Amino acid sequence: MKKIIYGLTLVVFTMLAGCEKFTDIQPKGKNLLSSVNDLNMLLNEMYSDFYSPRATTLTSVVYFTDIGILANEPIKTFNHALLFWDETIDRAALRPTCNVYEPIYRLIGRTFNPVIAKADGASGDRKLANRYKAEALVLRAWFHYLSANYFAKAYNPATASTDGGVPYLLETDLISQPIKKYTVAETYDLMLKDLDAAFKLDALPNEGVNKQRVGKAFAYAVQARVLLSMRRYEEALVAARASLAINNHIDDHNQMLIDYPLAVGSPTPKIWSRPAFSSREDLFNVPSSPTFCWHAPEVLDIFETNSVLQNYMPTQGKISLPYDLGDYFGMPGVLGVWDLRATSEISAAGLTSVDMRLVEAECLLHLDEVSDAKDKLEEIREKRIITDLYAPSTASAKQQVFKLLKQLYRSENWCTLKDLIDLKRWNTYPEYAENLYRTILGTTYTLTPESKLWIWPFPQSATNLNPGLTQNY
């Protein structure tokens, strides 16, 4: 009987060739996933591969790199293309592997699909079996959403049916065969199909048993993000509100200040802190800490002048350290460096209740309910601005409210995968598309909405083994 092997789709076939026993679900007749408890244990992932600063150079931060050397390297690297927005570089030729693509499909192939495939036949509590299957279906949809938004064009109703998408790895797919690259429209349809299947099982708790397990709040949140991307605003609004009905918490940043542990001198400065898994906002958390990352001034300018983050993030200009972090980046004296030293984390590839507030506001804006949209944004701003300095925004016209919305989106998610996804998505709207600018070592660079850099290349570890996996730019 042919064995079904669940593994990295198109990613590491050659690596797996010598590891068949490890990747088989039923090696030599012994079922490793025979009970509901086995499925539960398999879902206890740590998501350690998603250290977002390594994947967000295009739009936000630069992980520990000597930028001076990078600017003058004789043979241009992949990071050079991202940092200096250089479209002349053949990025695919410089991408033998990928720290976004491979972790996504590793999770889908090794964790989510085995749970989906084995849940119906596993021994034990049927309600729990259905719960774990529903969790895996939601996560499979979410991680394919991340893949689609990195490696393909943003969903555009006018072109989605012909735009190249990504592989959608199902539990029936064999890694010994190339996996079909679906169109963008087909990819999104499969996401919705997985989410519908999860909801039909009616087995999810309102919230996950911890911040890295799935509950209804996160399932509705994923559905809201998918539908928003598809411009199905009324449906996305319903899903976002269903999530918010379970968890609508907003952290008060004014209550999240601590003494900076590494500062030199007196008094010790206060910094904003969000310890790992401490926030009630998290619906599903894939943690990452933006430690030793350089922020271009244009990124720091995203934040409102009176925001807690703008005033209490531990940049070089706000804390006293025994060394100049700019030296490490080839730019002595620069101020845009964040050194959290594990005092804080952000949800790099997860979703929060504030994300759902933003989805709700954006849907209302697209539906021309501008005043209601602004009210939702003020609920967030009130908890993000220094208390004594808070005042409602004067934005009133639709374009003004969208500008406020965009500022909040970006300041909430500036160092996550969602920052790129949202910017890329808005570029499909002529009225909202705009250039990004970045000044490095005295030179200003421009990233246009039409740039092919918005679409990540599939790595050679995938394309070499699947001729049908052509690049989408």
What would you say this structure looks like, in words?
This protein is mostly helical and about 475 residues long. It folds into two domains: about 15-50 and about 95-205 and about 455-465, Serine Threonine Protein Phosphatase 5, Tetratricopeptide repeat (Alpha Horseshoe); about 230-435, Alpha Horseshoe (Serine Threonine Protein Phosphatase 5, Tetratricopeptide repeat). Helices cover about 40% and strands about 10% of the residues. It is built from 18 helices and 13 strands. The strands form six sheets. A three-stranded antiparallel β-sheet has the order 1-8-9. It has a two-stranded antiparallel sheet with strand order 2-3. A hairpin with a 2-residue loop joins strand 12 (about 435-440) and strand 13. The longest helix is centred in the first third of the chain and has 26 residues, at about 125-150. The two termini are about 40 Å apart.
**Quaternary class:** single chain
Domains (count): 2
Question: Kindly, what is the distance between the CA atoms of the first and last residues, rounded to a whole number of angstroms?
Answer: 41 Å
Number of helices: 18
**Strand arrangement across the biggest beta sheet:** 1-8-9
Q: Residue-averaged pLDDT, rounded? A: 88
Number of strands: 13
Query: Which consecutive residue ranges, at least 5 long each, have pLDDT under 50?
Result: 1-30
Q: Calculate Rg over CA atoms.
A: 22 Å
Give the overall shape, derived from the CA principal axes: globular
SS content category: mainly alpha
Text of the CATH class of the largest domain: Mainly Alpha
Please give the CATH architecture of the largest domain: Alpha Horseshoe
Q: Share of helix among residues?
A: 25-40%
